[in-house]
């Protein structure tokens, strides 16, 4: 690409101000009595700027309001070329910092001295204005039909036309370009002239990228007075195949029938591209299919995939990937994922398998994300660590997989679930009752807490039981346990619940399970004779008025209560 550099700061033109000392002297003599100070020396910087708009436009004068110099109430213009020392005055509306002098009030090629005054007192050094050259051109026009030189590196040619201007006067125009969505503009060197007219050349462009171009012009002798910017011209370079493709899903897993996707990354700069996707299945190449960006379902038993861009250049190659899942012996092992204090990235390290791979790929996705939402990075061989970019959230589970890639296929390591920072669970597991084992002994089980609610690695469960109005009794259970028998529960109503814990703390109880355990005497054993021949009341008095209790009071053959009855 042509070397680009910032434009040089060149000195402003120094007009012939031979009459300025005399003018300053006249101002000094005509100043009212008691006026402070003297006029600044001629040529010193001031807040006033005047220029014409186009070759036939009016004269615009504007100024910055400076408190120490005051605010002008009139603007004075003095002819220096055609009407020697002729001066006329323009009233400045109150509060306004600019005035427009119609073209009819001056001669086109005249030279003027312009200054502002307040109640007759000059405020600034006079400004010299050459009406022949002090003109601001309009904007150049850019041709939307851009030509490309389809070689590597890629080059674009943009035709343009200057603004309406007298043919004998030369304009200097400067053009800038940038990629879509970028803020900074890059100047193109050198600056171009309207005579002779040459196109804008932009070199070393990237494929599959949208660029923007704009330009402005100035008079050849007025290096500080640029005209308006042209409308931005957008154009896109030729499409290209994606440089980075990968897979998402359970391609090398044991679960049959699970969907897998071929993924690739979209062009970075506003480009809309359509692609062709090829697959090879059982040694046969399938007919390529067209698709938009940036995924395609992988057919079952696919061995190879390739992606190309539609209407790409002849020298843009396909991007391909072997989909063969190889043995675990060459897969990475010892994968460790760790967080970094004070940062939101995750660090992944691993050990290399038994063979030297072509590269390693580390991919990651948040629990519950769609297959299309996978992120990945590629690393050269010998690099056994990766700092995953992104803002990984606290308490959010991420699945991370390291895969060794060779020309013959893929060696994925088992996925690792990681939390940048663990939090206490948001929920507890649900309970249900299994078949009693042995009969009369409750057997219960509970499910797993979903990862996004667990918010960390499970350390253990806490099982709680409460019978009647007794206080709850809780005990910890291994995180690998999800069922338990409860042989020692008292008879009657009982409530059970389970809580999950991570290293960050214990979560709330899950949905409770209510049981009513049979037990205690039946009607035939509610009343019996004690050893002294008197009736013994076995049930609590709270049900003594029930019909069943009254039936128990009927005479029955004398017998002795079993020994367990005395324990109620």
Model description:
This protein starts with 19 loop residues before the first helix and ends in a 16-residue tail after the last helix. It is mostly beta strands. A hairpin with a 2-residue loop joins strand 41 and strand 42. 4% of the residues lie in helices and 39% in strands.
Rg over CA atoms: 44 Å
Indicate the overall shape: elongated
Main pleated-sheet profile: 5 strands, antiparallel
Beta-strand segment tally: 45
What structural category do the secondary elements indicate? mainly beta
Number of alpha- plus pi-helical segments: 3
Mean pLDDT: 82
Kindly summarize this structure in a few lines.
With 568 residues, the chain is mainly beta. The protein has 3 helices and 45 strands. It starts with 19 loop residues before the first helix and ends in a 16-residue tail after the last helix.
């Amino acid at each position: 690409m042509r070397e680009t550099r910032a434009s040089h700061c060149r000195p402003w033109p120094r007009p012939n101000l031979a009459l300025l000392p005399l003018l300053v002297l006249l101002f000094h003599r005509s100043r009212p009595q008691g006026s402070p100070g003297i006029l600044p020396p001629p040529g010193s910087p001031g807040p006033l700027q005047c220029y014409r708009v186009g070759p036939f436009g009016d004269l615009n004068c504007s100024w910055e309001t400076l408190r120490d110099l005051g605010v002008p109430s009139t603007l004075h213009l003095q002819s220096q070329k055609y009407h020697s020392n002729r001066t006329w005055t323009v009233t400045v509306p109150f509060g306004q910092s600019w005035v427009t002098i119609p073209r009819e009030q001056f001669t086109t090629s005249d030279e003027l001295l312009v200054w502002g005054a307040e109640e007759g007192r000059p405020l600034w050094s006079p400004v010299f204005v050459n009406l022949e050259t002090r003109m601001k051109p309009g904007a150049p026009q850019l041709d939307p039909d851009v030509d490309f030189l389809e070689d590597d590196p890629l080059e674009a040619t943009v035709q343009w036309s200057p603004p309406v201007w007298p043919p004998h006067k030369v304009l200097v125009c400067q053009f800038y370009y940038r990629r879509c969505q970028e803020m900074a503009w890059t100047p193109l060197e050198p600056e171009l002239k309207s005579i002779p007219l040459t196109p804008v050349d932009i070199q070393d462009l990237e494929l599959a990228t949208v660029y923007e171009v704009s330009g402005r012009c100035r008079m050849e002798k007025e290096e500080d007075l640029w005209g308006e910017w042209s409308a931005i011209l957008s154009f896109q370079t030729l499409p290209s195949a994606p440089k980075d493709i990968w897979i998402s899903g359970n391609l090398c897993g044991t679960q049959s029938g699970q969907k897998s996707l071929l993924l690739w990354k979209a062009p970075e700069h506003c480009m809309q591209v359509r692609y062709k996707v090829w697959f090879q299945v059982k040694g046969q190449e399938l007919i390529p299919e067209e698709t938009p960006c940036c995924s395609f379902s992988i057919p079952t038993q696919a061995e190879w995939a390739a992606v190309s861009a539609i209407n790409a250049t002849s020298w843009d190659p396909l991007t391909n990937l072997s989909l063969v899942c190889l043995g675990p012996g060459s897969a990475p092992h010892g994968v460790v994922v760790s967080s970094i204090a004070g940062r939101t990235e995750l660090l992944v390290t691993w050990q290399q398998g038994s063979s030297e791979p072509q590269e390693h790929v580390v991919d990651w996705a948040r629990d519950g994300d769609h297959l299309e939402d996978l992120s990945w990075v590629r690393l050269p061989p010998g690099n056994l660590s990766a700092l995953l970019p992104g803002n990984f959230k606290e308490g959010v589970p991420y699945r991370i997989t390291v895969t060794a890639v060779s020309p013959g296929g893929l060696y994925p390591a088992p996925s690792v679930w990681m939390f940048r920072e663990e939090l206490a669970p948001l929920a507890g597991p649900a309970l249900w009752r299994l078949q009693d084992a042995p009969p009369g002994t409750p057997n219960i089980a509970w499910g797993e807490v979903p990862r996004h609610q667990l918010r960390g690695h499970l350390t253990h469960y806490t099982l709680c039981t409460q019978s009647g109005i007794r206080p709850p009794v809780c005990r910890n259970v291994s995180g690998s346990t999800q069922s338990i028998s409860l042989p020692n529960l008292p008879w009657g109503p009982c409530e059970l619940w389970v809580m999950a814990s991570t290293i960050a703390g214990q979560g709330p109880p899950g949905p409770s399970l209510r049981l009513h355990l049979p037990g205690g005497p039946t009607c035939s054993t509610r009343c019996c004779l004690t050893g002294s021949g008197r009736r013994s009341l076995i049930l609590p008095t709270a049900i003594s008025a029930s019909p069943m209790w009254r039936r128990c009071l009927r005479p029955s053959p004398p017998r002795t209560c079993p020994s367990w009855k005395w324990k109620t």
